[in-house]
Amino acid sequence: MTRLNKEEREKFLTQPRLAHLVTLRSAGTPHVAPVWFLWDGKHGEKGRVWVMAGGDTVKVRNIKSNPTVALSIATPERPLSYISLEGRAEVTSEGLDDVVERMCVLYDGPDKGVEFAKELLGQERMVLLNITIDKIMSWEDDG
């Protein structure tokens, strides 16, 4: 097993992969949720991740009381690769329309993605999780 270099991590994180977001409940127990994400490798020293969520979800409530989060992203097939990101999340609506549309287009393509973004935004319940990354771990299978 070897670690991914910065260029390989950037390529990996810009693909439409499902991530598992870990937040902490008030009792300290983990809550894990599968999420779409949008990577911004140019933000800060180690980058940031955008995640969209319903404003009344468990993950949003958890982040409001404890902003410490982790994301795990892995390939579903061989050769296996994964990246684990740790950081702090902030709940915001700033840039909501743009980020939700970009994320939906990444995962669903241009036509379906734009329509899905309009549907989500029309519900007026979405917020963004702006996750500033503090730690990145990665590896890929050598064979």
TrEMBL record:
The record ties this protein, via Gene3D superfamilies, to:
Electron Transport, Fmn-binding Protein, Chain A
Recorded GO cellular component terms are: cytosol
Entry's Gene Ontology molecular function annotations: coenzyme F420 binding; oxidoreductase activity, acting on the CH-CH group of donors
Keywords attached to this entry: Oxidoreductase
What sequence ranges are listed for the domain Pyridoxamine 5'-phosphate oxidase N-terminal?
6-104
Q: Which NCBIfam families match?
A: Rv1155_F420 (TIGR03618)
Name this polypeptide is given: Pyridoxamine 5'-phosphate oxidase N-terminal domain-containing protein
